[in-house]
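Backbone-to-sequence.
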């Protein structure tokens, strides 16, 4: 029986479609494998920054001297961590900070994060800092993380608060007054200011660094005239300019006790000489005048 030409054509078309379909499937599989091996997928990078000087508190505002810690994760498109990824933090004006992967926290299976820290110098520029976290793995896949571009999300550096101590001292002995001061007697305002120290748990810190260059002043007033809400004397008696005395290892200035009975105090402020200076303010113990 002579075959129907229409049937032959139909069979031929089906065969061609099957062959093309098989070739397309093979090619598609090859393209997917090639894409993955060539880095077609991207890494997903996420994380935050914490203030380790305050016990790993989530924050974006840091004082000079405090330590910033970046905590990051890098996962693939399926959400699986990529342990062979290399992560780094780039901050304008700084060398690239290389991150390390390791366990963080307590428990049997603590989370694994990439981390790196930066202790902010006391002369660092203040204000917001942009940063970028970049990741790349052995397969060539890459990813990056940048914070939201607004003030509440950007890492922001603010001046440090100096540790400040004020005493009203007898110039004859170099020691703080322990009793009454006669009206008209000379009183030395003596201020010690040092940079704050932040150490890791159990770390033995070196002696604090004194502030020896900058400017200082002290406002004298009566104890009952000091307003704790405003941090000022309502009717100050005088302002005394202070200078750093290397022998006393303190900022000093002289004042004559007024001719009135009452408790006298000094509110002192010291600032270093960096742009947007670090400052410290403290109120002295009161000294009885006129008895």
């Amino acid at each position: 029986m002579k075959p129907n030409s229409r049937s032959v054509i139909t069979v031929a078309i089906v065969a061609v479609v099957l062959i093309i379909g098989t070739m397309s499937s093979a090619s598609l599989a090859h393209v997917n494998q090639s894409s993955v091996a060539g880095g077609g997928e991207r890494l997903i990078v996420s994380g935050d920054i914490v203030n380790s000087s305050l016990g790993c508190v989530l924050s974006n505002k840091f004082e000079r001297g405090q330590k910033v810690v970046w905590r990051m994760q890098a996962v693939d498109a399926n959400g699986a961590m990529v342990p062979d990824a290399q992560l780094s933090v780039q901050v304008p004006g700084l060398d690239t900070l290389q991150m390390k992967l390791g366990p963080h926290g307590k428990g049997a299976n603590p989370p694994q994060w990439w981390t790196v820290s930066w202790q902010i110098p006391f002369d660092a520029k203040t204000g917001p800092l942009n940063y970028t976290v970049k990741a790349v793995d052995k397969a060539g896949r890459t990813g990056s993380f940048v914070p939201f571009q607004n003030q509440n999300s950007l890492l922001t550096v603010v001046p440090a608060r100096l540790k400040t101590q004020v005493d009203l001292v007898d110039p004859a002995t170099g020691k703080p007054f322990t009793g009454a001061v006669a009206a008209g007697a000379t009183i030395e305002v003596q201020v010690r200011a040092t940079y704050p120290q932040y150490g890791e748990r159990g770390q033995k810190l070196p002696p604090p660094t004194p502030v020896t260059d900058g400017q200082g002043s002290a406002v004298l007033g009566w104890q009952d005239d000091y307003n704790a809400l405003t941090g000022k004397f309502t009717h100050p008696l005088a302002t005394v300019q202070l200078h750093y005395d290397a022998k006393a290892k303190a900022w000093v200035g002289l004042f004559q006790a007024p001719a009135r009975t009452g408790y006298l105090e000094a509110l002192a402020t010291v600032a270093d000489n960096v742009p947007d200076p670090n400052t410290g303010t403290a109120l002295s113990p009161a000294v009885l005048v006129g008895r």
